[in-house]
């Protein structure tokens, strides 16, 4: 409880603890002695005008000398500190917004101002993982009122970096809970920007899936662009398909999402705030949400999807975003390829109007592009789908796609993996069910997304009549070891593709 | 997603991260590359037959050479590993019991078997702080059914170290939510063991308060005893008043309590499981719970206390523990001293039947000792209080106390602090309210519990008629700086003692 102030010399140990700031101090330093180390102590570390909160780890060795302190990499960055500089360590005064987290834990509704303070403290790095986890848990399981979700979304927008684009009508599209192969984004961007709307699409890389849109596009064109580069592409072509990783659209969400993944939970409130805050920060005014529903998709029932849809629309309305949710079929993958290069191949086949292009991917892209054209207000209701089809069939969408790729740095054809293995039907029948999750897992075990050409080619959608010995899907891998690894997993799995 | 197994050489860096195991690995090692570091990665580390789960920190410096790994101190201890030994690092398979935590987050009731698995995984170190925080939060705010609290308590008992004592009737006493100065324990132990019951009392040190019973007793006699020493004292004298820190009575609770303190929340379910599991593990069959209620006590209303009382009694009954809850007055400190030596002085005054002994401390101790005598079944209902009084008045309790101190290693008189400052009434009137929390804070700022003789002497209980200039309380400190520190805080505080 003593509030001594300590001056210590900073020594870098190079320990990366991610977003949570850590301080490393010798067990014989004043703070360790006076604070006691039993209570997961947090301290304030100050370097000139910059100050952070850090969790304390005690060093019981000679890697630090008397009078030295070390900091985790994130803390070093936040403090902007150089080796040998002097920092001040002091007692941490209580963080007010944690009182609101406690209030939420005990079931109370929070105000807009309280969410603002919580989110600001999260962005400032004032919460430890323990606090972040408690906040997420307290807000999960339908414990957030719609007003609270609106407040959380607004707080995330207010703390994010805001993008500005040329053009009046900025459109975007988002898919809730990825479905393997559901790579409609590059097709939609090509169609709507060929029409004349502005669609500055920044996508994510895969975190737990076999491919994100950024991974898939990277097979064809550079996606790691600076904000300046992205702006130039959009100014020139009206659209882009880039990686959005460094945009800091919602820094609070970037932190919360890591903890949610560690907990393996998705709460609808956080999900809505996450998606919509990023859309607003990205400068979008009109957004189509693709919401696939299926037994092995993220949303497992139409009821659950409708519940989420209603909440999402309410929040969008409150924050001034024109939004339409399209509930789609999530019973099976879209297109054939699962994995960056295989999905890129499907995307190109659709854009090129190739005779063997997967019809489901084409139709899903046209559905969403049509809805987006109508949502923009530039196309009358009922005419979007036909117009999108006309733009695609005419080759204008493909031309626009190529132009965007050129603007992003060039175009190349997807490579094909060297190793492959066919999985065949064990009996005659009709495909009745597909396990998206296990099919994704096979693709990941085969090397996707790091090995771009690895993955799965899924050939027999639900309803396909198959004969014993017919190929159901093909596993692709860039190395023999990984192919074997995927097959080893498959040897213990039954019924990924169910035939009846 | 790749499941490579890596052999690495262990190097100690001496970093103490408390209960959460951490592994430190270079950014160029296989695991860091293949697992990706974005997702708060956890890995399995194996040393021979021992295996732990650790959270990964990535090292971006030369403190580790290629092929080396370091581990936090807790992980080193759990693996029993020596510098230079070779460990295996592998992918972590999902921890099943986290599925039950998720289920609880989404509002489902858990079974006894599910709590057993959760608590076992916590004791095994398989939960990160993120998971622990989610479990605590999901169980807080009246989200646990009584059957769940029983299951949690039983799971904690099953994973704890169990103590065994000579004698048939082992009794204990616990106070929920400490009240400053409420140091009845040494007096109660002396009375009931003088009577012939066995009361092997192990107490805690202060974590957030100005003194725990162990801190107070340490002023008078050694309290850091081994289990063997404690057993010898109890065999000889029928009672002890030792520090229980190393007893491992409920290792899951020891971990959960740290995270609860970081969150600054107390949930009734965890509280009941914590207290009762430790009592059963400590070998007690009969327990009195002191439950002080007051505006600035932990329990703020009689209704809240009664709710907790009913739940606690139900759980005790289910696990075969004879328990009685005594709701007491928590409006103000008990006795005069707040801080180890000042409280020890009060305890000795009561035991010695000194004419100036604080009456409230004496009467509270007699009330609880009387209840405990009756609960044991050896004393008839209605006779406990008089019997306790007789034992105290006769000097037998003091004799027993001295004998226990001698058995624990000797007796010494409490020291008196050198520096003091009197806080005086600013007007005439009657004391109507006392702020326990701020009075405790003054005692802590003055140096308690580390500086044993520091603290506060509170002289004017509620109802005292005071004149302007009369001393309300005295601040004691061992150093001038700390006295000033406490006074600086006081200069900004009004109405700690309210006079009307």
Automatic annotation (TrEMBL), chains A, B:
It comes from the Bacteria. One of its GO terms (cellular component) is cytosol. Its EC number is 2.4.2.4. Keywords: Glycosyltransferase, Transferase. It holds the Pfam family Glycos_trans_3N. SUPFAM superfamilies: Nucleoside phosphorylase/phosphoribosyltransferase catalytic domain, Nucleoside phosphorylase/phosphoribosyltransferase N-terminal domain, Pyrimidine nucleoside phosphorylase C-terminal domain. Residues 430-497 form the Pyrimidine nucleoside phosphorylase C-terminal domain. InterPro entries: Glycosyl_Trfase_fam3, Glycosyl_Trfase_fam3_N_dom, Glycosyl_Trfase_fam3_N_dom_sf, Nuc_phospho_transferase, PYNP-like_C_sf, PYNP_C, Pyrmidine_PPase_CS, Thym_Pase_Put. It catalyses: thymidine + phosphate = 2-deoxy-alpha-D-ribose 1-phosphate + thymine. GO terms for biological process: pyrimidine nucleobase metabolic process; pyrimidine nucleoside metabolic process. One of its GO terms (molecular function) is 1,4-alpha-oligoglucan phosphorylase activity. It is an enzyme of class 2 (transferase). This is thymidine phosphorylase. It comes from Fulvivirga marina.
């Amino acid at each position: 409880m003593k509030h001594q102030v300590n001056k210590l010399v900073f020594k870098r140990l190079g320990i990366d603890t991610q977003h949570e700031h850590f301080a490393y101090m010798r067990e014989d330093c004043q703070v360790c002695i006076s604070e006691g180390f039993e209570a997961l102590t947090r301290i304030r570390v100050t370097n000139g005008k910059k100050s952070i909160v850090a969790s304390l780890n005690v060093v019981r060795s000679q890697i630090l000398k008397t009078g030295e302190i070390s900091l985790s990499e994130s803390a070093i960055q936040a403090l902007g500190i150089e080796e040998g500089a002097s920092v001040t360590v002091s007692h941490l005064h209580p963080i007010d917004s944690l009182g609101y987290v406690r209030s939420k834990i005990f079931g109370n509704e929070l105000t807009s101002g309280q969410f603002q303070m919580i989110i600001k403290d999260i962005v400032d790095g004032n919460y430890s993982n323990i606090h972040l986890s408690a906040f997420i848990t307290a807000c999960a399981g339908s414990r957030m009122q719609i007003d609270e979700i609106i407040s959380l979304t607004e707080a995330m927008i207010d703390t994010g970096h805001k993008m500005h684009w040329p053009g009046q009508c900025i459109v975007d599209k988002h898919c809730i809970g990825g479905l393997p192969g559901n790579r409609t984004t590059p097709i939609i961007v090509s169609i709507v920007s060929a029409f004349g709307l502005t669609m500055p699409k920044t996508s994510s890389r895969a975190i737990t899936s076999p491919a994100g849109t950024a991974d898939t596009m990277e097979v064809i064109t550079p996606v790691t662009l600076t904000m300046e580069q992205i702006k130039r592409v959009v100014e020139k072509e009206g659209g882009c398909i880039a990686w959005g990783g460094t945009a800091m659209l919602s820094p609070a969400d970037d932190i919360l999402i890591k903890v949610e993944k560690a907990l393996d939970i998705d709460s609808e409130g956080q999900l809505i705030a996450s998606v919509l805050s990023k859309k607003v920060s990205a400068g979008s005014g009109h957004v189509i949400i693709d919401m696939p529903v299926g037994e092995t998709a993220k949303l497992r029932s139409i009821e659950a999807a409708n519940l989420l849809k209603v909440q999402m629309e309410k929040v969008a309305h409150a924050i001034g975003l024109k939004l339409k949710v399209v509930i789609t079929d999530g019973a099976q993958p879209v297109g054939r390829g699962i994995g960056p290069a295989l999905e890129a191949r499907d995307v190109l086949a659709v854009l090129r109007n190739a005779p063997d292009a997967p019809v489901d991917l084409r139709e899903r892209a046209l559905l969403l592009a049509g809805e987006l054209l109508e949502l923009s207000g530039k196309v009358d209701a009922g005419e979007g789908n036909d117009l999108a089809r006309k733009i695609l069939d005419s080759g204008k969408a493909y031309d626009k796609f190529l132009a965007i790729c050129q603007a992003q740095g060039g175009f190349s054809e997807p490579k094909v993996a060297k190793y492959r293995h066919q999985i065949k039907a064990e009996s005659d029948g009709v495909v009745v069910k597909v396990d998206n999750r296990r099919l994704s897992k096979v693709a990941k075990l085969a090397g996707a997304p790091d090995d771009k050409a690895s993955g799965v080619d899924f050939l027999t959608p639900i309803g396909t009549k198959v004969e014993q010995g017919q190929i159901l899907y093909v596993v692709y891998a860039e190395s023999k070891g990984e192919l074997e690894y995927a097959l080893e997993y498959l040897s213990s799995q039954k019924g990924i593709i169910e035939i009846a």
